[in-house]
Amino acid sequence: MASHWILGPGAIGRLLAHSLSPLAATTLIGRRALPERQALTTPEGELRAQFLNILTVAQLASETHEPPAFLHITTKAMAAEAALEGIANAIPSSTPLVLWQNGFLAQPRITQTWPGPVLCATTTDGAYLSGDDSVVHAGRGHTFVGDLNNQHDELAEALAQTLTQAGLAATQVADIRQRLWQKLAVNAAINPLVALHGVRNGELRGEAYAGRVIAVVKEVAAIMLAEGITPPNIGQGEEAWLALVWQVVENTANNKASMLQDVEARRPTERGAILGPLIESAQRHGLACEELRGLDDELATLEESFNR
Ligand code: KPL
Fold first, then answer.
1. Do both 118 and 253 map to the same domain?
2. Is the CB of 248 within 6 Å of ligand 1?
3. Could you read off the pLDDT of 96-121 as tens digits, one per residue?
4. Spacing, Cα 255 to ligand 1 middle (Å)
5. What is the Cα–Cα distance from 204 to 208, expressed in whole angstroms?
6. pLDDT band at 167 (very low <50, low <70, confident <90, very high)
């Protein structure tokens, strides 16, 4: 079976490594050393430990390794390009990449610059780290795989089959661009607000925040229309986007969104990958984006305060 390298040992990277290792030669790569004995808690609460093949970027550079059939990049969105550059010398430039980032920043940039195939994956599987040696697979979801130019359907299909065999249900799709923007639209309406106010997703339904959610969705809906992105649910336009956002808020009411987790850990957020493409698109299409820009500025100010 084809071999896999996974660059970025965060929650999704480790979930992938745990899932693929029993099936195929799999190497997890990060900047710092991690214990090789790693534990996974399944959504059913079962604890599984296994030895993963883990290398640091420095080790990878100093030794010769058989190149992988797929390089998965599972870093945060803003770190993906630098992470790829850091190991690009260790692999042929024809190596297929799989980008697992949120937003729509790393995907178009790397698709344009990497000579080999670039697949994008978007997943609703939920996972979080619970230490240097353990990850919790909090909820089973579904992963969609495709490439932005629909030139690598067979490769995406092969990967989707492998992921499914590994226990992560996946489907090859011809509309990955739509799906990435749809997720970005929902993330833009939820993540910045909960991160700025330190609240769980469900609190957005309250009087204090609902008006701002509606104002953000209004701008996002106009941008989606200009980008040719339709809502995934029944219906069209602002109302359908708003219904989708409230549905996700409801389904994830108790969640601490990823951006809130970043803010609490005083880490840079993914605002550049989520709000950035929306603001850039609004400018390109001459659309209003005061709300989105306001959120971006507030997050930038908050992030600056982390360095003081
Ligand atoms: O995807 C999410 C995230 O946390 O990044 C949402 C949908 C906001 C759920 O928390």
1. no
2. yes
3. 999 999 999 999 999 999 999 999 99
4. 8
5. 8
6. very high
Under 8 Å between Cβ of 282 and 295: no
Q: pTM of the entire structure?
A: 0.95
Q: Is 256 a catalytic residue?
A: no
Give me the domain span that covers residue 274: 177-305
Residue 233 pLDDT exceeds 80: no
Residue among 179, 201, 241, 270 to mutate when testing ligand 1 (max atoms within 8 A of CB)? 201
CATH number of the CATH domain containing 80: 3.40.50.720
Per-residue pLDDT of 123-166, as tens digits, reads: 999 899 999 999 999 999 999 999 999 999 999 999 999 999 99
Q: Which of 121, 36, 31 lies closest to 70, judged by CA?
A: 121
End-to-end Cα distance, the chain: 49
Q: Separation of 26 CA from ligand 1 center, angstroms?
A: 28
| ipTM reported for the complex, 2 dp | 0.93
The total of structural domains in the chain comes to: 2
Q: Is 255 in the pocket of ligand 1 (CB under 6 A)?
A: yes
